[in-house]
Known about the structure:
With 151 residues, this protein is of the alpha+beta class. It has helices spanning 43-54, 56-61, 74-84, 100-104, 142-150, and strands at 13-16, 21-23, 31-36, 64-70, 90-93, 108-109, 114-115, 117-122, 128-134. It is globular and about 35 Å long. The N and C termini lie far apart (29 Å).
Amino acid sequence: xxxxxxxxxxxxxxxxxxxxxxxxxxxxxxxxxxxxxxxxxxxxxxxxxxxxxxxxxxxxxxxxxxxxxxxxxxxxxxxxxxxxxxxxxxxxxxxxxxxxxxxxxxxxxxxxxxxxxxxxxxxxxxxxxxxxxxxxxxxxxxxxxxxxxxx
Length: 151
């Protein structure tokens, strides 16, 4: 099932890099940017997550919380986040059930076993307001999200 603009975003429970459980519904009243990426420890994903961390304060100015999501385990995400020296970015583990969040958002490669590269922006009421899927080796352009938020 394809997720569409204006639809309610599927809720989920997920472990972050600190092995704390959080769910989408925990952020009512905030916009959420779910930034899906295939795997930790890969160059394009590294830059994608570093850019989100660098722009974290700018996202906060728009009442947005960015979250990086991949199928990697929480301990893997913890080690990777430490290696990248991420200061504020929350990293979510779509490890188990394997790729469930990616599947719920129609952003999972069944034949490859990992989440696609995509950004999904969810409003304060839990509805999808902007989304874009990228090629695997394409770096997401955060300017297009900020341009949308400025409208």
